[in-house]
């Protein structure tokens, strides 16, 4: 599975800007991710945050406490850089280096691996994160993107 190029990752973030994001939206998105992961027998943990508040968390069979640690590390990258954890890591690799070598951030606290995505609201900006951990990083990223695509399409139908 090839990693998406930087322009594709940037386009995902532009395209997946939400009109709003409420507590109920967090529940809807989180339960959608749980359903998708269960259908695929994916051993993942799922986390959704707005600001400093955890709005949704689920740990599916096969996930471990390590997945929660990965969630925290990937989420911190999104909070710091304002873009997906995969995009942040890709930008360092495009410069011929790695996040771990060049960010000057503690790798026990930050991980620029795929799976955490910014919750971006129209006219507001990044207000939170949605993160999945438990699969290889590209699969974590793709699961989040797929869920956000479905969620956004549903929001547009409702609004």
TrEMBL record:
Q: Where is the signal peptide?
A: none
State one Pfam family annotation. HbpS-like
Q: Which domain of life is it from?
A: Bacteria
InterPro entries, per database record: PduO/GlcC-like, PduO/GlcC-like_sf, YBR137W-like
NCBIfam families membership: PRK02487.1-5
Alphabetized PANTHER family for the sequence:
PTHR28255, UPF0303 PROTEIN YBR137W (PTHR28255:SF1)
The entry assigns this protein to a family as follows: Belongs to the UPF0303 family.
Name of the protein: UPF0303 protein ACFQZP_21160
* Lineage of source species: Bacteria, Bacillati, Actinomycetota, Actinomycetes, Kitasatosporales
């Amino acid at each position: 599975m090839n990693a998406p190029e930087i322009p594709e990752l940037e386009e995902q973030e532009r395209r997946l800007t939400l009109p709003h994001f409420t507590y109920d939206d967090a529940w809807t998105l989180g339960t959608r991710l749980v359903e998708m992961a269960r259908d695929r027998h994916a051993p993942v943990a799922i986390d959704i945050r707005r600001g400093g508040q955890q709005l949704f968390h689920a740990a599916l069979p096969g996930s471990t406490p390590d997945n929660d640690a990965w969630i925290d590390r990937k989420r911190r990258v999104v909070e710091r850089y304002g873009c997906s954890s995969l995009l942040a890591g890709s930008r360092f690799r495009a410069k011929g280096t790695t996040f771990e070598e060049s960010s000057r951030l503690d790798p026990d606290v930050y991980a620029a691996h795929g799976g955490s995505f910014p919750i971006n609201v129209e006219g507001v900006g990044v207000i939170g994160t949605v993160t999945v951990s438990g699969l290889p990083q590209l699969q974590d990223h793709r699961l989040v993107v797929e869920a956000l695509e479905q969620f956004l399409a549903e929001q547009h139908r409702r609004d």
